[in-house]
Amino acid sequence: MPAVTRRSFLKATAAGGGAAGLSALGFDLAQAAQVTQHFKISGAQESHSVCPYCAVGCSLVAYTQQNSDGSRRIVQIEGNPDSPVNEGRLCPKGATAMQLATSARRVDSPLYRAAGSDRWQQISWSQMLDKLAQRIKDTRDATFVATDAGGNTVNRTEGMAFAGGAAFSSEEGYLATKLMRGLGLVHLEQQARV
Ligand code: SF4
């Protein structure tokens, strides 16, 4: 008898003769259909993504359903069983990926707390980027070292450091390194759990 793999079993049962085959194996299909109608992912659209938290790069499946106004809401995110990286599993951090999109505590616009203030204020991305650019320039101007104590040319910025995110692609890492080295940074780090 030829070996039956998971894929060939699903293919055979899905191809018309499946219902009869499953019934013959003792599955109560009417009851199963009734139960699955109440699954929260019943009728949901399936989209594939990658966990953003670390460089392991586990595959995710996100299930979304349409709201009455046409927008979509996420109803479930779980590990992708077809991924050779995680085979459907997620670590505790990845298993909470849904909260990235749905948590009421999610911060979705820049918050700024002025020096000496005890409160955060919402500002625009444009205002925040201007602030960051100005601070980078001020810090670089104030801490740039052209020559060291021995008279050697070093051209380095000692007042800033850079930490890359572990979900960086190779290209993002390359770009960030080029930019930071261009500013004269010496202290570059990478938060990778591999
Ligand atoms: S190990 Fe955890 S944090 Fe890293 S990619 Fe996989 S699920 Fe995400």
Task: Provide a concise account of the structure shown.
By secondary structure, the chain is of the alpha+beta class. The chain has helices at 6-14, 18-24, 29-36, 98-102, 125-143, 170-183, and strands spanning 45-50, 59-66, 72-79, 111-112, 121-122, 144-147, 153-164, 185-190. A 3-stranded antiparallel sheet has the order 1-2-3. The protein has a 3-stranded mixed sheet with strand order 6-7-8.
How does this structure look, described?
This protein has 194 residues and is α+β, with helices and mostly antiparallel strands. It has three domains: 1-38, no CATH class; 40-102, Phosphorylase Kinase, domain 1 (2-Layer Sandwich); 111-190, no CATH class. The protein is 32% helix and 25% strand. It is built from six helices and eight strands, in the order αααβββαββαββαβ. The chain has helices at residues 6-14, 18-24, 29-36, 98-102, 125-143, 170-183; strands at 45-50, 59-66, 72-79, 111-112, 121-122, 144-147, 153-164, 185-190. It has a three-stranded antiparallel β-sheet with strand order 1-2-3. A hairpin with a 5-residue loop joins strand 6 and strand 7. Helix 1 (6-14) crosses helix 2 (18-24). The longest helix is centred in the C-terminal third of the chain and has 19 residues, at 125-143. The two termini are 43 Å apart. The site of iron/sulfur cluster (SF4) has 11 residues, from loops.
